[in-house]
Amino acid sequence: MKLNECTSNKGFTTAEIIISIIIIILFTSMITSAFYNYYISIQSKNRRTIATNIVIDIIENVEMMKYEETSQDTVDTLLQTLKDNGTIQNRIFCYSYYRKIQ
């Protein structure tokens, strides 16, 4: 009996199927993780950009005032005005950026 007669090249073995499923799961999870990290970094960049624009708007408005007129109350009023105008959306304007402004 020859060795070639005992082996068959028809179909897949269970080990091959399990290994291929494991490889597919690994690559899928790596690709998903890469997309998720990209999405998170883009969202973080957008939040920082919005916060920077808000701070710039407030600084520009404060620069137009006299020194005697500037106080924390006027900055809070400007901030509330920007919120009311829709410049600052409540879902984007988070507490940590407000604390940095103060």
Major sheet description: none
Low-confidence stretches: 91-100
Q: DSSP helix count?
A: 4
Order of helices and strands: HHHH
Distance between the amino and carboxyl termini? 87 Å
Computed CA radius of gyration, to the nearest angstrom = 30 Å
Quaternary status: single chain
Structure notes:
- It is a single chain.
- This protein has one domain (11-101).
- The longest helix is centred in the middle third of the chain and has 50 residues, at 14-63.
- The chain has helices at 3-6, 14-63, 72-85, 95-101.
- Helix content is 74%, strand content 0%.
- It is rod-shaped and about 95 Å long.
- It is mostly helical.
- Residues 91-100 have low confidence and may be disordered.
- α2 (14-63) crosses α3 (72-85).
Features:
single chain; rod-shaped; disordered C terminus; 102 residues
Brief overview:
By secondary structure, the chain is mainly α.
SSE layout:
Layout: H1 3-6, H2 14-63, H3 72-85, H4 95-101
